[in-house]
């Protein structure tokens, strides 16, 4: 039990240290155009990585299943400039339909 609390406390301290490090960055660094571009693109890269992981991985194996087809349908809908809600419904519907088959 003590190892669990040690891990929790170490994790909390690490999170606090990371936040403190972020707050300690000088303003001139944050005003840099390069930092601005990286900051704007980082959420997109993280979301793409999360999407790929959730779509093509099951446990620790690479899989191609109904989720990949749902993602493909969503991509086509986005390219056709469909509204966000339509994209989500089409992707979810495709995935659900293919899982039933």
Q: In words, what does this structure look like?
A:
- With 101 residues, the protein is mainly α.
- It has 2 domains: 1-26; 27-100, no CATH class.
- 80% of the residues lie in helices and 4% in strands.
- It has 5 helices and 2 strands, in the order H-H-H-E-E-H-H.
- A two-stranded antiparallel ribbon has the order 1-2.
- A hairpin with a 2-residue loop joins strand 1 and strand 2 (61-62).
- The mean pLDDT is 93.
Please describe the structure with a list of short key phrases separated by commas or semicolons:
2 domains; 4% strand; mainly alpha; two-stranded antiparallel ribbon; 5 helices; single chain; flat; 2 strands; 101 residues
Count of beta strands: 2
Q: Please indicate the count of domains.
A: 2
N-to-C SSE string, H for helix and E for strand: HHHEEHH
Quaternary structure annotation: single chain
Averaging pLDDT over every residue, what do you get? 93
Specify the structural class.
mainly alpha
Beta content comes to under 5%
Residues in helix, %: over 70%
Number of helices: 5
Q: Widest sheet: strand order?
A: 1-2
Gyration radius, in Å: 20 Å
Write the layout of secondary structure elements.
Blueprint: H1 2-23, H2 27-30, H3 33-56, E1 57-58, E2 61-62, H4 66-79, H5 84-100
Antiparallel strand pairs: 1-2
Helix pairs in contact: 4-5
């Amino acid at each position: 039990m003590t190892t669990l609390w040690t891990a929790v406390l170490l994790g909390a301290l690490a999170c606090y240290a990371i936040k403190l490090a972020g707050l300690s960055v000088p303003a001139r660094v944050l005003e840099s155009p390069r930092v601005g571009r990286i900051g704007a693109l980082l959420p997109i890269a993280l979301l793409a990585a999360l999407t790929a992981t959730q779509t093509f991985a099951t446990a620790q194996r690479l899989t191609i299943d109904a989720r990949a087809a749902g993602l493909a349908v969503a991509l086509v809908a986005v390219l056709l400039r469909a509204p966000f809600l339509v994209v989500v419904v089409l992707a979810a519907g495709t995935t659900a339909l293919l899982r039933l088959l």
